[in-house]
TrEMBL record:
Residues 1-145 form the UspA domain. Belongs to the universal stress protein A family. It holds the Pfam family Usp. It comes from Hyunsoonleella rubra. This is Universal stress protein.
Length: 280
């Protein structure tokens, strides 16, 4: 049984991510954990030092969270009617990233699926601060769903890589699992600066060839392009339904994602994005 964590702030953006997860895994037995974290508006150090119940707000905030979680749970059951899916609700007084980490560890979560909308709502910012913090701190595969994206079966998946990662099973199993759900082709894209592959890179590429031998896959290579441009040009040529990257601090993911180029990809990426941690 797959275990899927669905953080929600009860926005339509978060509902969109819930709908995506429900449809992506519709043929799989799943347990969904519908999570809302809350901190009362007056939350600060003095408040924490005193029993929160004395303020008469803690219970009210929790009740509101539970009520909205139950509404979302009912909506899931009503709209998707899937006997293979069970839903558990979690209303927790905590910060979002800390609680996601706790639930991932405690429940053995397979995927976190969440919306990407930033607090600013600015069109040029693809990933909000919460999403970026989850990418950086949570050791679990995360599927981020762009605002307004309607579900498409992931028939064409793009996996850019520099082959500088010694691929382990925990890197590749989430990819195999997702591409096995549908009749999916995995496009493995190497972006280089014109140099030949090193012996280490060749060995890592061979690992991919062996691991994906039972999945439909193609290797592609482009040189003298930056990663966002390569991804964009590939999407123009092939209708990609899902982008997958491994968050390795020694790979181009770090430079792409946590530096100024985040907005370069933000302008063009309109599809779900599966981010796999480099370490478990």
């Amino acid at each position: 049984m797959k275990k899927i964590l669905l953080p929600t702030d009860f926005s339509e953006n978060s509902w969109n991510a819930i709908a995506y997860a429900s449809k992506l895994f519709k043929n799989e037995a799943c347990k969904f954990y519908l999570l809302n974290t809350y901190t009362p508006a007056v939350y600060h150090v003095d408040y924490v030092l005193v029993e929160p119940a004395q303020f008469g707000m803690y219970d009210a905030v929790k009740e509101n969270s539970l009520e909205q979680l139950n509404d979302f749970k009912s909506r899931m059951e009503r709209e998707f009617k899937n006997p293979k899916h069970t839903i558990e609700t979690l209303a927790v007084f905590n910060t979002l990233v800390t609680e996601i980490k706790d639930v991932v560890n405690k429940e053995g979560i397979d995927y976190v699926v969440m919306g990407t909308k930033g607090a600013t709502g600015a069109k040029e910012i693809l990933f909000g601060s919460n999403t970026v913090h989850v990418f950086k701190n949570v050791k679990c595969p995360i599927i981020a769903i762009p605002d307004g994206f309607s579900f498409e079966k992931p028939h064409e998946v793009l996996f850019p890589t520099d082959y500088d990662i010694a691929y382990e099973d925990y890197h590749l199993k989430p990819i195999v699992d997702v591409v096995s759900l549908y009749n999916t082709r995995l496009n493995i894209l190497n972006v280089s600066y014109g140099y030949d592959l090193s012996e280490t890179q060749k060995a890592n590429k061979n690992i991919l060839e062996e691991r994906f031998k039972h999945q439909s896959h193609l290797f592609h290579s482009v040189s003298n392009q930056n990663v966002p441009d390569a991804i964009t040009k590939f999407q123009i040529k092939t209708k990609i339904n899902l982008l997958i990257m491994i968050n390795n601090k020694h790979s181009f993911f770090e430079n792409l994602f946590f530096k100024s180029t985040i907005n370069q990809i933000g302008f063009h990426l309109k599809i779900p994005f599966l981010v796999i941690p480099s370490q478990t």
